[in-house]
């Protein structure tokens, strides 16, 4: 029975929101960032925030804080993501992943002295950790499992779903995409569960199913009316909401596929903070605490977890609402995966596939067997603040960057950007756009003006 939870790198506590209906008690948080810490204090004033996770092994060992039944956390992912240049264990933030193991070890030593079973571990991270060049993920799971040496795969590329049964702990992981859990956001994240030798994490993260059929993502209307406004979106679901969404213009793929833009009454804008809360599964205004800055809210939400996915894991973990999975090694389709067994451990590579297992199948894909879908209609909010609309200068800046770098763009998005840009004279756009420094790809002014004038003529 899991009754107590300790939260590491708590952020704004997606786990507390996701698991609020279950009989689990969060006994402490560990968060150092200012705004998330203020969110925690506002919503959970009775739960202590311990602060720096580096202090947790000592505090647990000295019994200054409780050794809980479950440890959950998502150590900083910047070291494993493309945005963080994938520095892995050469980055101090990446080494916090191994500090997480120290916390687990300290926790289990205290629990053993108390006659309690080893703690359950729930860990979330970006998909990029699976291909970290320093093999941080291999070091992490090997340490949790109790191996003497770190496992490694060719190119340090780990599968999207796998199981490691070690001498100390069983460790299972699976990449899940929030767009299959009722959030219209494509957000693939790695979810890992581990526990003692009597714990079967695969029965929580994987699903035993009767056939290989999974639902396809449905089509939703891209134009709709809500309240007193006409809306248009460019795709049925957004790209992954990132932490810098509110502080930087969309210079990534989402700027050109349009998935993180909304057209409202003919004007194009970003998603508002309340819409981002909905995209992550949080209650409306959850991050709107006193003196909250909009940029802080965007950043905290982009760094958080997709609440419905964490709720799905919690439901299966806390209620036992899952089928006990027993792998029939002789029946597994080993041609498409690797099974390693030596020195008292077993490693299963399941990719992101549906696996034959005797007379049944095991779902290890990005989507659950029982999917839920929602559209951006339920996300958009009429009362968008004026400062999140993209100006004519900003619209043409996206077009200019696309032309300079020969990038692909959603054709309809490009039409809208041109139309909005055409409401301002090219010379005025040029004057205002020169306020900010341009990169090395910038074209000459004459070429920009000529291209823009041609575009205006085409629109007219």
Overview of the structural elements:
With 460 residues, this protein is α+β, with helices and mostly antiparallel strands. The chain has two domains: 4-212 and 305-363, Rossmann fold; 223-283 and 376-459, no CATH class. 30% of the residues lie in helices and 17% in strands. It has 14 helices and 16 strands. It has helices spanning 14-18, 34-43, 56-61, 92-113, 136-145, 202-205, 253-257, 273-280, 294-302, 307-319, 392-404, 411-421, 426-433, 445-459, and strands at 4-8, 25-30, 70-73, 120-126, 161-165, 170-177, 188-195, 207-209, 223-226, 229-232, 261-264, 267-270, 339-342, 345-349, 354-357, 360-363. Strands 2-1-3-4-7-6-5-14-13 form a nine-stranded mixed beta sheet. The longest helix has 22 residues, at 92-113. The radius of gyration is 24 Å and the shape is globular. The termini are far apart.
